[in-house]
Design goal:
With about 350 residues, the protein is α+β, with helices and mostly antiparallel strands. It is built from six helices and 14 strands. Among the domains are: about 80 residues, RRM (RNA recognition motif) domain (Alpha-Beta Plaits, 2-Layer Sandwich); about 100 residues, Alpha-Beta Plaits (2-Layer Sandwich), CATH 3.30.70; about 50 residues, no CATH class. Helix content is about 15%, strand content about 20%. Pfam families: DUF4283, zf-CCHC_4.
Length: about 350
Amino acid sequence: MAHELWDDIQYMVLGRDDPELLIPHTAYAGVLAKNRLSMIGKPLNLNDQPLKRVIQELPRLWGLKTRVHGRILDDSFVQFRFQQEEDMVSVLTQQPWLVNDWFVALQRWEDFPGENFLTFIDLWVQLRGIPLPYVSERTVRYIANTIGDVVALDFNEDTTPQIAFLRVKVRIIFTDRLRFFRRVRFQSGERAVVGFEYEGLTKICRNCSRINHQSRSCPFLVPPVAPYEDDDELLVPVWEEGHRSHTPSLRSDSQSSEPSDISSSSPISQPPHPSPLHNGIQAAAEQPKHNMFATNLRGKQESTGSNFARDSHVNHRFEVGESSKRKKGKQIASEQERNTRPRRKDVGVKFYTVPSKPP
């Protein structure tokens, strides 16, 4: 109820049209002087860095718990007010500072901050992998400028005791992704890969390499693709027809379904079951065959002719393989073998039936 009442009130005209109230400079002159001895802080990962914990933890890390006053400004920023400028300068020099393993960006107070106010953080970076003949201040700056503006360089060609790595402080926009390697090619033609190691870096988004959020809340994650409703359907490739190819190719529905040399438009059906009559003929085929045209031509066998006379009083016997000539339902009748003998006529030899006794 209270929230609804507040929503109604804030859209009402309750003195907005009244004349402006002029506040004299003397009313806030002392506050401006104190604010100039303060700095504004911004936790980079608010999900893991509650503002109340930040204003309690940082003064303890600085060793200035009794000489620094911290307060929350809004949902994203905090302010630390110092009693002495030396303490504030020391804190700014020792940056970066971490709370709960995440960086806190700190910047000195500005009366009229610009657009770039508190949008960056200064980090010490170690450069590794520069070939010895090319190690110089100009080379270090040239390479470090590719990841950010160079703020300070902890390297001197005459006094630096070690050059296994070269330290440089770089101003990094904390909304940009960090780089960890850089391929370089010198004018002499030699190539190298220079690595960047950020001091104090303990946590980073493994997805986008940024330092202001965790991987589970990364805004640059690609949303998962929703599965199709028929995701369980098996997609079977169609082989190219007529090319004898072993490469499958997906065929669209709009393609023609004409039959080819390896496919047919007619459906495939099971072969018909053999009838009992056919089985009987097949079994009879396994028995020794008897020639229905056995000849008795003086011990010599002649080839059977296509023309012969049939006895109308004798039942015919069918040869195996001629079952298609038999009428449906007819049974195979057995008969005795008939003797035939040739008789000469004008043209060729013709076989005809004769009685069992010779004439």
